[in-house]
């Protein structure tokens, strides 16, 4: 293996990524070194490139988090990751690694903590594999934020429903798929052009979020179906008040829980007997590492293996490799709907 590799680095906020050669790192005790074959983009990537937010502690920085590729080396303490040569997907992010550029996704060889690496079935391409990591972890973290274990498996007799507001987003599609796996009946919102697709992922009913009567329509459907709706995931900006309007009518005397994926602003709306939390993993490293392992090894791995969690949303593959990342990030910044941008390397 070469001593150096190509990487697209951010030299300072507000400037384009530049492709340079970086020294290929040796994995630390809990690390897996991955030869990256595809990366997927998330909104956080262009925010960090353009504004340095969330804060980038080290420059030059390697941004990105979603990768798929081959295991090249493993650290001395790694026992759970697939062996060298395996096809894997991983959360390769500097975000939980104090900004370490060795852990960023936008390079040909990236480190990932072993808890965040899982086998990629032969039935899925590297491009398909790259769309899972951050979106899946965010969707799954919402459940634990609401106090719902990832081992939960409701049956129809439990009559448990959940509301996913913003289901056509990358996180939203996995919120729907994971809700179905947990045994919830899923009510979701999306643009009408995505309704059939969201239903194909497991939603019971999908509503147009721009409909003036959307809240009353969801409430009527839940009542007609005779289900209990106490839990909701507000995936997108501007969703919280609508979600609370629904829960006010459906929760009765029961306590309700909302996971809010956008950062909660000061003075955000509230509802009696309803817990509203920002959807974010624990700041405690030991707790967070266990949670990441629960997401990737406990929940994702078996569902990938049996095909129950499909790559979503639709892939938009952009060419150009590392040199093409700036153009791909510009497209992400301009806005995508019901698609996930992926760049093969």
Automatic annotation (TrEMBL):
SMART domains: PKS_ER (SM00829). The keyword Oxidoreductase applies. Keywords: Oxidoreductase. One of its GO terms (molecular function) is oxidoreductase activity, acting on NAD(P)H. The keyword Oxidoreductase applies. Residues 14-343 form the Enoyl reductase (ER) domain. Pfam families: ADH_N, ADH_zinc_N. PANTHER family: HYPOTHETICAL OXIDOREDUCTASE (EUROFUNG) (PTHR45348), ZINC-TYPE ALCOHOL DEHYDROGENASE-LIKE PROTEIN C2E1P3.01 (PTHR45348:SF2). Belongs to the zinc-containing alcohol dehydrogenase family. This is Chaperonin 10-like protein. It comes from Cladorrhinum samala.
